[in-house]
Design a protein that fits this description.
Helix 5 links the parallel strand 1 and strand 2. Helix 3 runs antiparallel to helix 8 and helix 4 packs across helix 7. The chain is built from 15 helices and eleven strands.
Length: 383
């Protein structure tokens, strides 16, 4: 029961607050206080400390205290599981809610066909893994939550290794402080640990120090951004997945403006509804699309009441973007997708002015591309 509770509590880390909530200057000052990491394990521990800095001492104490009681039972109980060997596969993609469409085609060309596996369905720890964890424990004996999370991820990777015998493991794991440690773990198992970019990025020490054998990013802008976050400078490969350039089949423009929601609360949703109503009253065709994974749909239904709300299950994101002349969001991957589709990009500077003011400091890529501000669009007919 404690293990399940700690896992649920862990899911609240960072996600409990929007990335834009944290003071950028304080993050940069804290990041600069670290020495150069001596290996991948220390990179992971530094990233763990950065995330604790964001969440605060109370949260760090609670998770560490609970982990003190569940770490050894978790390792013990998962040392007796058996994982059946199914097949040999060159490349395995760990699917944790996103499809393999985020994988650039260059990876398949380089490593062959990729099979997708569910995240965390099977776990196992063998003698090698316990010895690996013991070495980590000797370095950080009081960091029980750090050790517990590492044990969980190693158990997942061990089960994948024993079942599929891959040469390459592909994931989108840069936000996890276990990522660099897993790179060293994979190295010792003669496996390459590859990370793929899967969404918009801004400056945050949540992802500081991350290191992989290969990290596929979408633009040189992100390389410079990640270097500011002190990630491994030797890992980056610039390659875009096909979905960024995808064009929906025979799709006519239906809307003049479409707003793409994110992790919005009641206040921002009401502001968005008001802005879209103003555009609608000016004669524009408008629509609002919830984020299929992040947006609390019942809140969107409750507060977006004056303009149409798009059902995500009725059309995919590519078709949704294609059928709109202009796309509006605050900080979203749809901006970049729209950029490649030659759409008019509108950045929301109204629903949460505090967060918008920080986007420039956080190196938001769309600020460097041609774009309009929502406040200007509301005042003038700009499209």
């Amino acid at each position: 029961m404690l293990v399940d509770f700690l896992k649920k509590l862990a899911n609240l880390r960072i996600k409990s607050k929007d990335t834009l909530y944290y003071d950028v200057d304080k993050q940069k000052e804290y990041l600069a206080s670290f020495p150069e990491p001596k290996d991948e394990i220390e990179r992971s521990f530094f990233q763990y400390q950065c995330q604790n800095c964001l969440e605060g001492n109370v949260f760090a104490f609670v998770t560490n205290f609970i982990a003190m009681f569940v770490l050894l039972p978790y390792v013990f109980l998962n040392s007796f599981r058996k994982v059946e060997s199914l097949e040999h596969s060159t490349s395995v993609f760990i699917d944790d809610g996103l499809t393999s469409r985020i994988i650039p085609s260059k990876i398949r060309e380089k490593y062959g066909e990729v099979i997708s596996v569910n995240f965390g369905k099977l776990v196992y720890l063998n003698q090698f893994d316990r010895a690996f964890l013991w070495k980590v424990y000797k370095r950080y004996p009081l960091s029980f939550y750090f050790l517990f999370k590492c044990a969980i991820k190693i158990a997942i990777y061990r089960a994948i290794i024993n079942r599929y015998h891959p040469q390459v493991i592909i994931a989108y794991n840069e936000f996890s402080f276990t990522s660099s440690l897993l790179t060293q773990y994979c190295q010792q198992n003669q496996i390459r640990n590859i990370n793929v970019m899967h969404g918009e990025k801004v400056f945050t020490i949540q992802e500081a120090f991350a290191s992989f054998h290969e990290y596929y990013v979408w633009d040189t802008h992100y390389v410079q951004l990640f270097l500011k976050m002190r990630q491994n400078p030797l890992q980056f490969i610039i390659e875009q997945p096909e979905f960024l350039h995808a064009i929906a089949k025979s799709c006519d423009v239906v809307y003049d403006f479409k707003y793409y929601l994110g992790n919005d609360n009641a206040t921002t949703l009401q502001a968005i509804d008001k802005c879209m109503l103003i555009l609608q009253n000016k004669g524009y065709r408008v629509c609002v699309r919830p984020h299929p994974r992040i947006t609390v749909f019942k809140d969107a239904v409750k507060y977006i009441t004056h303009v149409p709300l798009e059902a995500c299950e009725e059309k995919d994101c590519i078709q949704s973007i294609q059928e709109s002349k202009a796309i509006i969001a605050q900080c979203s991957t749809v901006h970049l997708q729209g950029y490649f589709m030659n759409k008019v990009l509108v950045v929301d500077d109204i629903s949460n002015p505090f967060q918008y003011a920080k986007l420039l400091d956080m190196d938001f890529i769309i600020i460097t591309k041609p774009h309009l501000l929502l406040s200007d669009v509301l005042e003038e007919d700009l499209i």
